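I'd like us to work through together how a protein chain folds, taking it slowly. We need material for that, and I hope you will provide a protein of your own picking. Go ahead whenever you are ready, and we will take it from there:
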Amino acid sequence: MVAVLRAETFYLPPPHLPADVWDDVPPAERVLRWHEIHAQRRLPHIAREQTADALYARIDAGRWIAEHPCGTAHVVTPADPWLLCTTCLDAWHPLIFPEDPAAAEAEIADEPRRHQFWYHPADEQWQTERLQRLAEHAGRGPAPQKGRR
């Protein structure tokens, strides 16, 4: 049984810092600290009052992630359901998780991490893309687009 990674267990301080140095940083903001260290550049402060469209969270290869419209994805957490894209820095996006994230994690817990995937049933865009990929891999060509013939 492999635990699904969340922001608070994925974005950890580097080894030269105390392990608890980010304990007071909200989980959604740990990606910002992590990015500043790994990209070696400071990010501007963007208040959480600046919000944008909601995004769906999903489990992808054993990690809770949310994908920004620009294509950048970050590890996220239901404990602090927000995303600020470190590429666009546009605004904070509220995240849509299932009502019971632990139940979604339990559905895929017995799978190896590389097979741990879960998608929100209301996320029509991702479901359409997933069906298209399945059709392409089955050798039938692209799946028909919704509303098109």
Summary: Residues 7-137 form one domain. The helical segments are 7-10, 27-39, 101-108, 124-137. Strands lie at 55-60, 63-67, 73-75, 82-84, 92-96, 117-118.
